[in-house]
Amino acid sequence: MPRLPTPLTLADRGDKQGGRTAAAAGRPGAPAGSGSVRQRRRRESATAWAFISPSVLVILGLSVVPVLWSLLLSFQADDLVTPSRWVGLDNYRALAQDPHFAEAVRSTLLYTVLYVPLSIGLGLFLALALNRRIRLVGLYRTLVFVPFVVSATAQGVLFSFILDPEFGAANSVLHSLGISSQGFLTDPGQALYALIAISLWSGTGFCVVVLLAALQDVPASLIEAARLDGAGRRHLLRHVTLPTITPVLVFLLLWQTINALQVFDLVYVTTKGGPLGSTSVIVYFIWEQAFKNFTAGYGAAAAYTLALALIVLAAAPRLARALRARTGRGIQGATR
User: Fold this and answer.
1) Which one of 42, 176, 250, 297 is most buried, by most CB atoms within 10 A?
2) 10 Å Cβ neighbour count for 295?
3) Mean pLDDT across 42-56
4) pLDDT tens digits, residue range 236-256?
């Protein structure tokens, strides 16, 4: 019977090559080929940097450099045409006293406070309804998600026609029901709430998809054990489902809040901050100051004020977890 050949491995081949190199160098037992290994690694690193350098330059040119430039711009008086003038913290002091900025902050906070919980709550309701084996459930899930795919610009144009106070379909329906016509986007008391309703129509689909995926990951053994213990639907939701999907709810809370604080395109297409500044949110205020009033330094200061708020918002959960962990360790140390 012929003898099978001995398989060659990478380690064996490296040992043989190392032995030959060491023998050739006249230094048995020394690390073989260390110089050639270092040279090969240098060549590989140079090749890797040659491949990724275009992407690095694009990232630096389109993100890092503009961020640093706008930070310097926030300390200057600049109209994007004439040479800038250093003013230090004057732009930030002016923001603290600007009633238009205060109104934009109020509108943004109101939009966020209403939109975020409503989108998550409605998304959870629809996700629970669609997390069942019903006929055509795939079609229903698709129809719920489709509005999220539509761009905010298209949404703004569509609802500008639907909510038109004279020729819109919404007032036609209200008129057929015996309700007087509404101003919607042209009424200072209704415009912001109309924008929230439009955002809910589109943004809830994202929450539904994320929560639906989380619901399908809830262990079936936990649900069966709770049912054997006599738990009803309400108890299952409260004591099994919600605690299991809590990390996903926290993610959605943070994600939706950041998106709400940065809303711009829907406002720009529909109301342009009006009527009477009732829908002027922070990002629209920044755009208006920088590219409409040509006070780029002032707009950059407002942008960095928003950026600081977003950084604090993003860091808050991590700080809370660290504080909770430190408190838990302190309690355990005290009990010992």
Assistant:
1) 297
2) 20
3) 88
4) 888 888 888 999 999 999 899
